[in-house]
Amino acid sequence: MASWQLPAAVLGGAAVGCGGFLLIREALPAVPALGPALRRLHEPVAVATPVGGPLSGLARRIRVPQRDLTLLGRTREQYLLSLLLSALIGLATPPVAGFIFAAAGITLPVAIPVAASLVCAVLFMFVAHRDVLDKAAAARAEFVRAVCTYLDLVALQLAAAHGPVQALEQAATVCDGWVFQRIREALLRAQLQMRFPWAELRLMSEEIGVAELGDVGAIMQSSGAEGAQVQQTLREQADSLRDQIRTNDLAKAESITSRLDIPGAALVFVLVLFVLYPFMTRI
């Protein structure tokens, strides 16, 4: 056994064991922390960077998808920690594989595991980053769909002779789900900080990158400040959002259908080869 294989196997096993411990720890239910919950209620910024944390300096120097993290309810430190763990797993995978090959009697040059470790570390970090972006895109699409329902509910509350503030609050209590839970938290922050709820909704829309929620705040601001009748405007905005969602879904379906043409054409080509093969062998 080469001199580098035993330390590499020990470091790889330690990294894998640390990663498994962290995964099990995150999967277990934890007691909700009172301090972060109170900070979310009393601070306009939903995500705060803890002072003196081990990753706080690195978090200030690296550009992170802040809106996506705020939408997913994650902090900058959690995002950087996920990238670091992914890189460590990528670094540990080739040495572990090299140890398995060495146990099987296959000796590899030292340059191959080292280069593979660097490549895997970068690849795993990119996969972790793309996972955050994909989850944020799916959550943002779900948020927009929920905003359509919220618009209709607010219009119904206004039609029932409720005021604009009460209409926003009552409509948010009708449905469950994480989107309406976030809206209720924003309205509660506005109530505790003595702010208008539509201002809080517009601020929240800027933080999470959902402009449709800011449109709700703009429409209700005209109702609260000028006393305008906005029921019809809310319904028209909901219909417009549904048309936009329908158009996007049709575009995605057409894109997926066009990609399916490639394997279909390849399958036809293979079938043609099977049919023509006997005739070609006789020539």
Task: Walk me through this protein's architecture.
The protein has 283 residues and is mainly alpha-helical. The chain has a domain at 5-28 and 45-136. It is built from eleven helices and no strands. Helix 9 (197-208) runs antiparallel to helix 10. The longest helix has 52 residues, at 231-282. It is flat. The termini are far apart. Mean pLDDT is 80; it is low at 44-52.
Keywords:
283 residues; mainly alpha; flat
Distance between the termini: 56 Å
Summarize the amount of helix as a percent range: over 70%
pLDDT < 50 stretches: 44-52
Specify the overall morphology. Answer: flat
Estimate the strand proportion: under 5%
Task: Please tally the β strands and state the result.
Answer: 0
Total of DSSP H or I helical runs spanning 4+ residues: 11
| Biggest beta sheet attributes | none
Gyration radius, in Å: 27 Å
Whole-number mean pLDDT = 80
Structural class: mainly alpha
Tell me the series of helices and strands, N- to C-terminal.
Answer: HHHHHHHHHHH
Brief rundown of the structure:
With about 280 residues, the protein is an all-alpha fold. Helices cover about 80% and strands about 0% of the residues. The protein has helices at about 5-25, 35-40, 55-60, 65-70, 75-105, 110-160, 165-170, 180-190, 195-210, 210-225, 230-280.
What is the topological layout?
Layout: H1 5-27, H2 34-42, H3 56-61, H4 66-72, H5 76-103, H6 111-159, H7 164-172, H8 178-192, H9 197-208, H10 211-226, H11 231-282
